[in-house]
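Example (one chain per record):
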Amino acid sequence: LEAEPPERACRRLVVHRERVAVGVAVVGVDVAPEQAGAADPLEAAEELAKKHIFAEIIDLRTIRPLDIETIVESVKKTGRCVTVEEGWPQFGVGSEIAARIMDAAFDYLDAPVRRVTGEDVPMPYAANLEKLALPNAGKVIEAARAVTYR
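Predicted structure:
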């Protein structure tokens, strides 16, 4: 992690790789969750690396202020973006990120922004159903493969 001014350092965490094919912006999801089966972007990045798809994980620790500059820099570098959030697909932070990318970095996109979200259902109480309703590493991998056309 590069040294940054404290006001920016508290807002995000970026995992850099030498060759990057896709940027993954993570909102409200543990980057290294303890719960088995939960969305684990780092696990997804490791699986993608085995398939020679290298992902840059951007952990957005706050959404206000939103560190859109980091996301735009990732899009400029990769030409792609996948957002991951546990919320519903409608009116989510991933939608806002996609809209801001369209405003600031549309010409750099090589693929549409893909959003990985929770299912559009009320959150189940049962643990087995909750796992099905929330995003997981498999869905992140599927979205990253879709935007890299692999």
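Caption: DSSP finds six helices and five strands in the chain.
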